[in-house]
Amino acid sequence: MNPLMNDAQLQQLEDFLLAxxxxxxxxxxxxxxxxxxxxxxxxxxxxxxxxxxVLGEAELVSEEEAQTIMELIMSLYNSILAExxxxxxxxxxxxxxxxxxxxxxxxxYGWCEGYIMGWNQHGESAMDDxxxxxxAALHLGPVAAFLMYQEDQLLNPPDEKEHRLAVxxxxxxxLGLYRWWLPRRIMPGGHx
Length: 192
Fold this sequence. Notes:
By secondary structure, the protein is mostly helical. It has eight helices and two strands. Helix 2 packs parallel to helix 5. The protein is globular. The model has no long low-confidence stretch (mean pLDDT 91).
């Protein structure tokens, strides 16, 4: 899933973020969705702008821990970029086994929430541009659909088959929007 991160590093980052949820840190699935959109949009957004949103007010107890966590987050960032570049992107989707032992129910809401938060960092015009283009709007559709669920539908989707199909389309949506923006991207220095 993350070619530049091994499972132990991914677990270490997840543990740190979970331990700091009360300080506003994003869970790992939210952070992955968020960084995917950060990397996909019309302009490069510098870490100084998005890093505080991922970490919240997490306390880094030492210089060594701060360096380790920054390296892990940047590894996640670079892994996502590599996956988008090589077309092998996979969103981190939580799942619920209870009542679905044979086929756990995917719970994409964290990833989708992070993804939309990431797009919001690009400004309202980026969302407007995607909504106004048929191809981009189609890619955005599955993400938006999950954010319209009522609270009582989160663990009991109105149409489970359609729910699963939409989850399966999220990777293609992320890749499609990344590629859609490539020729429209504002390069550093102001040239497209």
